[in-house]
Fold this sequence. Notes:
The complex is a heterodimer of chains A (448) and B (317). Chain A is of the alpha/beta class.
Amino acid sequence: xxxxxxxxxxxxxxxxxxxxxxxxxxxxxxxxxxxxxxxxxxxxxxxxxxxxxxxxxxxxxxxxxxxxxxxxxxxxxxxxxxxxxxxxxxxxxxxxxxxxxxxxxxxxxxxxxxxxxxxxxxxxxxxxxxxxxxxxxxxxxxxxxxxxxxxxxxxxxxxxxxxxxxxxxxxxxxxxxxxxxxxxxxxxxxxxxxxxxxxxxxxxxxxxxxxxxxxxxxxxxxxxxxxxxxxxxxxxxxxxxxxxxxxxxxxxxxxxxxxxxxxxxxxxxxxxxxxxxxxxxxxxxxxxxxxxxxxxxxxxxxxxxxxxxxxxxxxxxxxxxxxxxxxxxxxxxxxxxxxxxxxxxxxxxxxxxxxxxxxxxxxxxxxxxxxxxxxxxxxxxxxxxxxxxxxxxxxxxxxxxxxxxxxxxxxxxxxxxxxxxxxxxxxxxxxxxxxxxxxxxxxxxxxx
Amino acid sequence: xxxxxxxxxxxxxxxxxxxxxxxxxxxxxxxxxxxxxxxxxxxxxxxxxxxxxxxxxxxxxxxxxxxxxxxxxxxxxxxxxxxxxxxxxxxxxxxxxxxxxxxxxxxxxxxxxxxxxxxxxxxxxxxxxxxxxxxxxxxxxxxxxxxxxxxxxxxxxxxxxxxxxxxxxxxxxxxxxxxxxxxxxxxxxxxxxxxxxxxxxxxxxxxxxxxxxxxxxxxxxxxxxxxxxxxxxxxxxxxxxxxxxxxxxxxxxxxxxxxxxxxxxxxxxxxxxxxxxxxxxxxxxxxxxxxxxxxxxxxxxxxxxxxxxxxxxxxxx
Lengths: 448, 317
């Protein structure tokens, strides 16, 4: 293992300026004026140090769609974005609906070493929405799956959703629902509005999301189960979730960075980079989602990183795939939309993007703060940097980012995972070095 | 004007000037020798991803009357049906040296994709894209209205004060959208008549009056023009309306409703008509009907558009 790292004069999320010493896979010392020993010393003056970011909603595409992304390329994108853990959605091929598939995904993550990969299990076999998948087997496998989702599709059958909530509760898991009434959104292309009608693109009404969330929170209340709502996109959904939380229902909600910044107006270009599911909504929705973060109604930010090859986007809008990559751009977008607008401070960002998603996903060993004895999972952000987000910032296999050419505040500078650097000075650490560090760190984990 | 993608982005001056050039074109069509040498040596491509014999032939006649070389590139029987992408098709047409591309596509925005993506440099003319727009149809409709109302004094005139009622499946109609934007730009008042299921979501923000009852619209608006849209009977299967009989009774232009219309009303239909459904045969064949004028005016308007976009000086971008 390396001889450790000493970060000098970093700013913690509460504003404290301190040195951080990392030895092995843990934070060994936090304090002022630590003396450098035989270790790598990195000047972190002006950088905000956060516990490593955790993305509860990533599409890594492997197995099955390796032309879009692999576990390796997707976790490289994650490291570049300051993430130390990603939860990988189940819509692979084969679908992650058996212990074998989730264990394979977990192993690929360990081998790559850029981030912890926590597989999400499918709720239903093949995401078909007909019968429960091998939830118990996945929960009890070496991948210890705790989050179950048919994301990309909604568990729309009410009885099946009830059973899923009940059965997943058995394993202390959570169902992460993609809330979309399928009949109300047949062939839907963008937010339903005067604009969708003007553009002649079939509308995706807000009510198709809000009605499913309404039903699901009532089911969660009735059963006493946990529910997590993926990518909340409308002002109405926020009101439903607010109501549910006031009633004490165990519901958590996520929002994506793009729903906090971009609006449906972008569809006017017919440029399919802006085609995403749920769709970009009105400015009123964006503002309501930001307020919901300030009010604590929305619990976490998750990227819904959805890589697609060029040809899936370089075509007619209605022929194009849904989704955008988001790991590399998450921090700049969040800083621009939430921090620089005064809605959040960095401590709240740490909650939204690290601590709370770790808790929802029952992620073991994630640091609860940057302090001695905690796992060394860290992200260092330079909030004073301002730059154009260009294609070189994308480190995954796909380039379907809606942000190319836009200017943002904030950039991730260093990422530390399991005590070793995966990103240094904005550059990814070499694949072989990271894989070697990962192997050593797992050995130490076993021997300690 | 570099492309013609929609009527929404046409200014009043641009629209009137297209209509005036179409008047010039119409005049040349009265001569024995109808063919002009204007576009000799230029290649116009009719790129049709969706069947539309009428629109395709209209552009074909227009291009030929201007002496352009015309290539018909239709999805059926070409590589498109084997899954060739819009990008490859566009780049192929660029390599073949197309000077203008007329595109009809079932995807909304396909014409704008061709104009914006940088795959091809030629001017793009939207001949109907999904549920979005059909600008040359709206221009030929406006041209027809102007001629009916102003006759020989049409040049330079807009449509201020005209009362236009458009009836039928507005929700799925690119013709209704293109007409609304253009008619409003030209100063006409537009009333949409349809059951709520066939009104585009959010259309109350568009500046059209929306009325559900056709008889009320006829009495209250006293329309200068009634435009009937084709209704697709498959819509019954998807619960837009319960039955053909109910549709005809409430929204069809029947002989009785004809009687209630002002004497000099212009009855329009973009074709093809469902006689006995949205329009009775008597209405379609009455002297008030401009259905066949619309067809011949379509050629003049498309000649004007091809000429303005393709001949040497393209004017302001």
